[in-house]
Amino acid sequence: MEQPNINYINELSGDNLAFKNKMLAILKRELPEEIAIYKEQMRRKDFVIAAQSVHKLKHKISILGLEKSYYIAEEYEDDLKNSNIDLQLSFEDILKLLNQFVIEI
Amino acid sequence: MNSIIIDDEEMARAIIAQMIENHPDLKLIQEFPNAIQAIKFLNHIEVDLVFLDIHMPDFTGFDFIDTLKFPPKIILVTSDKNFAIEAFGYSCIVDYLVKPITEERFNKAVQKAKGAKIEVVNEAKPSIKDEVKEFYVNIDRRLIKIDFQSVDVIEAKGDYIHIKTENKNYIVHSTLKKIELKLPSDMFLKVHRSFIINTKKIIDIEDNSVLIKKEVIPVSRSNRPELMKRLNLL
Fold first, then answer.
1. Which of A65, B57, B165, B170 is the most exposed place for a label (fewest CB within 10 A)?
2. B71-129 tens-digit pLDDT
3. What is the DSSP string of B121-132?
4. Residue B78, SS3?
5. Residue range of the domain that includes B164
6. What predicted TM-score, i.e. pTM, was given to this entire model?
């Protein structure tokens, strides 16, 4: 499985350490919030609304350099709009990976 | 160029804010987590450039543009590649950035914005809306045409709206606020927080309700004066 990285954040920050720290702080705060919202929507089986959360999470997935995972998320977002949850487990594995990575950075 | 950012994701706002700060021709005036706050701000302050997310809950980027009479130049910033065609319909949209954006691509978009002139302002939009005779709703990946005249009542139910027409009812994932923007204002009126009615279909009116077909629709006290204004009273 591909591994997350902060190459994009490093590239964007250059030698601006304050900006890099700000980005990482936002990531640490915003990612768990977005995941919690998504999980609650799934628990309520509110799939169309959950698709919006997946859409938002896609940005974090791409920021953390997970190219293949991004395509899974993209497909899952479309599927959810039709209440198809076939990719739920694959997508939630990606979330676990992201969450763990963000805790450790 | 005085700029604002509208995006519900803090991370996205932080990235764009940094790129604006790095650009010699841009000045960040304000950032907003939703479009409603930005509309209120733009009623008082003029800006040159808006960095606008499309996917936002309740009020999308396109809803935002539709409400502005004189929209400034807009650069769309989104994770979705599929809106490019829709974006071409708006002369105020000067470029379209797909997240995650790079500084190089951002600078190109700003360069475009500097040279762009908005040819047609949205001033014509309300009259276009009035000339259009129908709207389309997305149901199970099909776009279904509904004539304005056929609509009796639109009712909000949770995250969905029920569009009740002469022949059929449709359940659509949307909000009253969104559909209200698409409807001709001389034909439709929001009479209650959960109901928009076609005023041409009213059979009778009581103190706090109207009858349309066999359905009694509640009328809020605050909406009653506007409803009474619309009536050709003897």
1. B57
2. 899 999 988 776 666 666 788 999 999 999 999 999 999 999 988 776 544 444 444 44
3. -GGGHHHHHHH-
4. strand
5. 132-230
6. 0.66
Confidence check: pLDDT of A53 > 70? yes
What residues does each domain of chain A span?
A: 7-104
Q: With an 8 Å Cβ cutoff, is A59 touching chain B?
A: yes
Residue A46 forms contact with B (CB below 8 Å) = yes
- Tell whether the torsion through CA atoms of B216, B218, B223 and B224 is positive or negative: positive
Tell me the two tokens of residue B171: 């359940």
Position A33 pLDDT exceeds 90: yes
Query: Is B67 in the same domain as B53?
Result: yes
Q: Which residue is listed with tokens 């001033």?
A: B123
Q: What is the spatial distance between Cα B144 and Cα B135, in angstroms, rounded to a whole number?
A: 8
Which of A12, A17, A30 to mutate to probe the B interface, most B CBs <10 Å? A12
Count: domains in chain B:
2
- Using the beta-carbon criterion (under 8 Å), do A12 and B18 form an inter-chain contact? yes
Identify the CA nearest to B52 among candidates B25, B34, B40: B34
